[in-house]
Design a protein that fits this description.
The complex is a heterodimer of chains A (817) and B (288). Chain A has 22 helices and 28 strands. Chain A starts with 8 loop residues before the first helix and ends with a helix. Chain A is globular, with a radius of gyration of 27 Å. In chain B, a hairpin with a 5-residue loop joins strand 4 and strand 5. In chain B, the strands form four sheets. A four-stranded mixed β-sheet of chain B has the order 8-1-10-9.
């Protein structure tokens, strides 16, 4: 966190000054570790074993927050008879189809129900004594029983004494009086089991009662400013704004199909229809009517995986003609970046919008493949349009941070030269396309011609007003008045709203995101600083900050509680609950939506109102997090015969080979991991063209322990070549004890550290760590595994030209019998 | 951000608390941006995360990175007969000086000495003490003689290759005149660099040492807060977690001019002695 979020880290330093204890769990001893009370080095890719160990510790020593667990989680839920856990199936859950490599979740369901079905969840079998062997609590106990401190040591290389110190501190600092928080960055997500890492932390926090309460939670630190914003109003192919799923071409043919599939019987997903129809009204205005399904037919449809990696592979097949990159640099930043550079060379045209002329815009003339002879400039047909982008200081708009806080920023200076904002580019591109199609009678063009595309512009460059966009996101009623929030949304076409969870950000016609009242002039929750979605709530699910009877769990941790006299929920924050729903309320059997929430259903977005320790539906790789080795690992999975996540997405391709896994990993015996350092930003587009930053970390380097340096003949400050079956890169050698070797399952495992900032462009060029990694993905969100793979390290610089490919091939052949 | 209300006549400075430094180098960048300091060059040093090496004409804030191996607790001597659980406070407490692996980071800067050698040796008057008792070089007066460079006991001030002038931290004199905090202190995310009236900073620093001592942090000490040291105290002083040498700082810095008087005395004595000897020689030859 100190490396990648030094400004946010000030709050950790402040918490420490107030007595908080900080543990840092990371393969490397970093700037964060320097200030931690304890740093635990663990093997990259082994975190579920570590977290599973903590879950087992909590359950074995009965340290869970029982009252919280029974009332607010699905611990008491009975699971169907047919479920089989990995302890019975060599590491698989029931429902796995080896031919397809996918799971059928039928056997994972709650007894007698499909979670999104129409049955009253209140009638489902529960065992609040938590003793039924088929209740979630007992299944958890059984599943994690083998994750003992000794097993944690075998898998992760963490000594039991250190593990137990964390376990005890975490338990002692949770409960009625105290809360603990988990903070992670993308190091947790970029694995073939990335989603399950976060799930494991969620289970722990729910067991300990650390969700919905001040000082608790799981805090995701994002990779860039406003990455949260780019999932809320997404740049993701499978989502519409506000986490509404993108319609599927065959499953959701009509609006009714879509709304039926997306509507939960209970909770706030019951209003899916209102959210989508209001979105369509914002996009299509008067053209969207009840008669034409509010232009639902205009929305794009999914037919399968259209993620960035699938798309790059499709480029190689010639299936993709054009591509636009906005602030993204796949030639450096994507796993197997060599494959991406070659893929970009199959496009007819490519638009790159960035602050600098990044590698993805210049691959055709100075990419490493030109040097090796794999590509020839004169044979690359791609027409590249580089359009310089304005920086955030050169435009108005909002950033949404990890706390879901929308913070408005105002333009400080005009962009120079041809630099323009993304908003300018998108608006004028749409305007020109609409002009070109204006006379079209082709029905497919209606999706573009029916759009409301009437944003006011200002200044010499006709810059669209970001303020007007924010007003549309907030939404308005049929009179054009700003909506107060998402509860006002209707499915009859009377409301328009660009993103239902953001509704209220312009309530009363005031830009709520621009509020800047200093912390000292308001309560400690600071509700008048900017605006948080939804409804300006600073902590989600905060009904759980009170006991089931509505009283605070403790004075020390009071946050939101039931005011008996007023008959309302009150407190420090906006209650995240039906405001006047009494704690003892039991809904009637035919109640729907928010009306169906009982007084203790704190998790109001869940179909059963409970925090999910166990996930009966929605995950592609199992209802409970399970330790699997990374796709490439030098060790055999000590926990199960199943080596890696059986449902992981591999993309076999001649340009995307894999290193062998298990059994020592030869000829790639070392674990490698990538990361960022404080001096640079992601794939370098914002830092490697800046002298001030580049001089602080001027060259690509590889971090190795002195023992590994000795074993491989590496000299500090000299060169090393890192080899995988994809490619080989060279880097300067940084010998450091901060990357300690680990004793794993009786062997010494060395880890190799690679910052991923460098590429062949910029004023401080270097080779790209991502050239070394395969495209192998988490099956839930298609994220690449670049935090754990295997490699070999050789002394000296890499060979040039064709000899580089020869080296990679020769090395790879050593793995074949 | 609200303006400060800085008073001429009050001594201002930095307290750099290295116990909360995270080595982000925001101070280095902010300093260079504000003061328009030229680049330091692109040199990979293979020395932890330090690539700007030291303070100099083009580096007015420099973050040192020290990777320090663990100092093990000595093995506990097992008594011959098993004793019942020890109740004395010393039992189980850490041995003084023992610590886990440490990654020490420290943002170094000009010390703005009370008795500033650079100023004292400057023949042109280019270096002066401001109304905030900070030490500033005026580039338009500096003739590049370089006396200050050899005089500084810390190796802070340096001549710039390109223009020949001597350069160092000004404690953002221009910002101070405008009631603004120096750029490095404003950029520091963890308050490792604190700016303020020196007497307040000194009191705060002493409390911080006590706080660290009582929380079991090993080796916290102040460096440069003592007015009786060889430079009569720093205007920019430090809280360190180990000996100054560990951070590349001189343990006992002395203003060279402090020895001037004794040097002259010695020189005078030597000259006198020589005169006597010469006179003696003449006397002898006169007799001869």
């Amino acid at each position: 966190m100190a490396e990648c979020h030094p400004v946010g880290f000030q709050w950790v330093v402040e918490a420490k000054a107030r007595g908080a204890k900080m543990f840092h769990v990371d393969p490397r001893f970093t700037r964060t570790s320097a200030l931690a009370d304890r740093h635990l080095s663990l093997r990259a890719g082994s975190d579920i074993a570590f977290l599973g160990g903590l879950i087992n510790y909590v359950l074995t020593h009965e340290r869970h927050f029982r009252e919280y667990v029974v009332a607010y989680t699905n611990a008491a839920q009975i699971i169907g008879d047919d479920l089989r856990l990995p302890d019975e199936l060599e590491g698989l859950f029931s429902g796995f189809d080896p031919a397809k490599g996918t799971y059928d979740p039928d056997t994972w369901q709650y007894e007698g129900v499909d979670v999104r079905g129409s049955v009253n969840m209140g009638d489902l079998p529960r065992d609040e004594s938590l003793t039924d062997p088929r209740c979630v609590f007992q299944l958890l106990k059984r599943h994690y029983a083998r994750y003992t401190p000794e097993m944690v040591e075998r898998v992760c290389g963490v000594p039991p004494a250190h593990f137990l110190e964390v376990a005890e501190a975490l338990c002692a600092n949770s409960g009625r009086e105290r809360t603990s928080a988990f903070v992670y960055s993308v190091g947790w997500t970029q694995h073939t089991v990335g989603v399950q890492y976060i799930r494991a932390a969620s289970i722990l926090q729910l067991l300990l009662g650390n969700v919905g309460r001040p000082g608790g939670g799981i805090l995701a630190l994002r990779g860039h400013a406003s990455i949260q914003g780019s999932t809320d109003i997404p740049t993701l192919y499978e989502l519409l704004p506000g986490y509404l799923p993108m319609p599927h071409a065959h499953k959701h043919k009509t609006l009714a199909d879509y709304v039926h599939a997306g509507t939960a019987r209970k909770g706030y997903w019951h209003a899916t229809g209102a959210y989508l129809v209001s979105l369509l009204k914002a996009w299509y205005g008067d053209a969207a009517t009840a008669e034409n399904d509010f232009c639902y037919g205009h929305l794009p449809r999914l037919t399968g995986d259209h993620g960035a990696y699938r798309t790059a592979l499709d480029m190689l097949e010639g299936l993709v003609k054009g591509y636009m990159l906005f602030g993204q640099n796949p030639a450096v930043g994507s796993a197997n970046s060599r494959l991406h550079r070659l893929a970009l060379g199959h496009l007819d045209w490519l638009v790159v919008r960035d602050l600098s002329e990044i590698e993805s815009a210049t691959f055709w003339r100075d990419g490493p493949e030109i040097e090796t002879g794999e590509a020839r400039t004169e044979e690359i047909p791609t027409e590249v349009f580089f359009l310089p982008a304005a920086a955030h200081t050169e435009k108005d708009g909002t950033f949404t941070n990890t706390q879901r806080l929308l913070q408005w920023h105002t333009k400080a200076v005009e962009p120079t030269g041809d630099c323009r904002s993304d908003l300018w580019f998108c608006y004028h591109l749409g305007r020109i396309i609409r002009e070109k199609l204006a006379s079209s009678s082709d029905s497919k063009d209606r999706a573009i011609l029916d759009l409301t595309w009437d944003y006011p512009t200002e200044g010499d460059h006709a810059e669209p007003e970001a303020d007007a966009v924010l007003r549309e996101i907030n939404g308005w009623d049929s009179e054009g008045s700003p909506l107060p929030g998402y509860l006002a949304l209707r499915d009859d076409g009377s409301t328009a709203c660009g993103c239902w969870i953001y509704s209220g950000c312009y309530a009363e016609g005031i830009n709520q995101t621009a509020r800047r009242k200093p912390g000292a002039e308001q309560t400690w929750v600071a509700p008048e600083w900017a605006w948080a979605w939804p409804d300006n709530r600073r902590i989600l699910y905060n009904r759980a900050s009170a006991a089931p009877d509505g009283t605070p769990w403790s004075e020390r941790k009071r946050y939101v509680w039931w005011d008996v006299e007023a008959g309302r929920w009150v407190g420090e924050d906006r209650p995240d609950f039906v405001p006047d729903r009494p704690p003892d309320h039991q809904p009637s059997a035919d109640a729907r939506g928010a009306d169906a929430l009982a007084g203790t259903d704190a998790f109001i977005m869940q179909a059963d109102g409970k925090g999910w320790l166990y996930v009966p539906d929605g995950l592609a790789d199992g209802p409970l997090p399970t330790h699997y080795e990374a796709h490439e690992s030098p060790v055999d999975n000590p926990l199960y015969r199943q080596q890696s996540n059986p449902a992981r997405e591999e993309h076999p391709h001649p340009l995307n080979p894999s290193n062998p896994s298990g059994g020592g990993g030869e000829p790639y015996p070392f674990v490698m991991t990538t990361y960022r350092i404080a001096e640079h930003h992601t794939a370098g587009g914002m830092s490697r063209w800046q002298e001030r930053l580049s001089e602080l970390a001027p060259e690509m380097f590889v971090e190795v322990h002195p023992d590994l340096a000795l074993a491989r003949g590496l000299e500090a400050g000299g060169w090393a070549t890192i080899v995988t079956s994809r490619s080989a890169i060279e880097a300067r050698v940084l010998v450091t004890e901060r990357l300690a070797p680990l004793a794993v399952d009786g062997r010494t495992i060395h880890q190799v550290g690679l910052p991923y900032h460098w590429g062949y462009g910029g004023i401080a060029p270097g080779e790209s760590a991502n050239d070394l990694f395969p495209i192998v993905l988490d099956p839930n969100v298609h994220i690449q595994e670049v935090k754990a793979a295997t490699c070999d390290v050789l002394a000296g610089r890499r060979p040039r030209g064709q000899a580089l490919r020869d080296l990679v091939e020769t090395h790879r052949r050593r793995s074949q019998p | 951000m609200k303006d400060l209300d800085l008073q001429a006549g009050t001594r201002y400075g930095f307290f750099t608390d290295t116990s909360v430094c995270i080595g982000c180098k925001a101070c280095e960048v902010a300093c260079k941006e504000w003061n328009q300091v030229p680049g330091s060059g692109f040199e990979f040093t293979a020395t932890s995360y330090d690539n700007t090496v030291s303070l100099g004409a083009n580096t007015w804030r420099h973050v040192a990175f020290i990777e320090q191996p663990a100092i093990e607790q000595p093995a506990i001597q097992q008594p011959a007969i098993q004793q019942p659980a020890c109740e004395e406070p010393a039992c189980g407490e850490s041995v003084p000086g023992a610590h886990d692996f440490r990654f020490l980071m420290s943002s170094d800067v000009c010390k703005h000495c009370t008795s500033a050698a650079c100023l004292e040796v400057c023949p042109t008057g280019a270096i002066f003490t401001t109304e905030f008792q900070t030490i500033v070089v005026q580039d338009d007066i500096c003739n590049g003689c370089g006396y200050c460079v050899t005089a500084c006991p810390f190796g802070v001030i340096e001549r710039r290759e390109t223009d020949g002038g001597a350069w160092k931290c000004t404690l953002c004199y221009d910002r101070m005149r405008g009631n603004k905090m120096p750029a490095c202190a404003q950029a520091c995310p963890t308050d490792s660099i604190q700016f303020g009236p020196l007497d307040e900073l000194r009191a705060r620093a002493e409390r911080r040492v006590e706080e660290l001592d009582s929380s079991g942090v090993v080796g916290a000490r102040l460096y440069g807060h003592d007015e009786d040291d060889g430079v009569a105290g720093f205007g920019a002083f430090f809280l360190l977690l180990d000996e100054p040498e560990v951070y590349g700082l001189p343990p006992d810095p002395v203003t060279p001019t402090r020895h001037l008087w004794s040097m002259w005395r010695t020189a005078a004595a030597a000259a006198g002695g020589l005169a006597v000897a010469l006179a003696g020689a003449f006397v002898r030859s006169g007799r001869g």
